[in-house]
Amino acid sequence: MALFWCALRHAIYPKTETNMNNLSRRGALGVLGGAMASTVVPNLARAGMGPYKFVRIDGLAEQAVGEKLLKEVYKRAEIEISVTPMPGKRALQQASSGAMDGETLRVFALGENVKSLIRVPTALSSLQTVAFKKSGSDISLTTKDDLNKYSNVIVTGVLHTHAITEGISDVNEVSDPAAMFKLVAAGRADLALTSYLDGLASIRQLNVEGIEDVKPALNDQPLFHYVHESKKDVVPVVDAIIKGMADSGELADLRTKLEEEYLDNL
Length: 266
Prior knowledge:
Layout (H helix, E strand, L loop, with lengths): L1 H8 L23 H4 L15 E6 L3 H16 L4 E6 L1 H10 L4 E6 L1 H5 L3 E3 L5 E10 L17 E4 L3 H6 L6 E4 L2 H9 L5 E5 H11 L4 E18 L6 H14 L1 H15 L2
Parallel strand pairs: 1-2, 1-3, 6-7, 6-8
Antiparallel strand pairs: 3-9, 4-9, 5-8, 5-9
Helix pairs in contact: 3-10
C-alpha cells in the first residue's frame, strides 16, 4: 500500500498558482430554470446502461457539491446512479477494484496512475488548494516550498493535498477535516491544507473562530469524473453532456449555485 500511495504522490502536479479572490465563477448567477433544461444531448442514453454505483470522499465540501453536479449530468443521460461517501483511501480502493463503478471527482493525476479508472475528458469541477492559519499568525506563503517553514496537517487520502506536500518535511495526517482544524485552532499545527470551499465549510460547521485562509492559493486545478474500465462505454455519453454544459456556461452557474446552497445550509 505504501508503494501505491507513493506512486500517486509522484504524479505530475500542476504548478499554476492563482490569486484566490472569491468563489464566484461567472459573476451573477442569474436564473437557471429554462437554461438548465437546454443542454440536452439527443440519442446518447443507451438501453442497458446503469444503474451505476459511484463513490466520493466523505466529509469534503467540493465532493458533496460534485455529487449533485454528477447526478444532474446522469439525469440528463437518463441513467440512474447512486453515490456513496467513503474515506478517501477506501473510496479509491473500491472504485479501482471495480467493486464500485467509479469516483465522483478526482484530480487529473489519478488517471495517470490508476489505469483501471477511465477519466471523463471534460472537467466536471475544480478546486483551489489553500492553507488555513490562526488569525494574526505571522505566516506567509509564496510557493509550496514555503510550507517547509511550518507544521502542516492534511486529511488522509486526499490527493491534491498529498501532492502539494510532497517533499515537505513536517506533515501530519488526520482522518477528517474537523480534526485538522482543531489542531490549528489549538496551536498544535501551523497550517491546515485543504480546498478553499472545504475550509470555509469546516470553519462554519465547527464554529471555529480565529481561522483564516492564507493568500494566494497554492494551486488551482480541474476535477474529473472517473469510471471503472468495465463501464467505459458510458464515458462518451457523460462527456458529451458535461462538455455541452461547460460550453454554455451552465455548468459553472450550477456549480456556483450549489456551492452557495451548501454553505448556507451548514
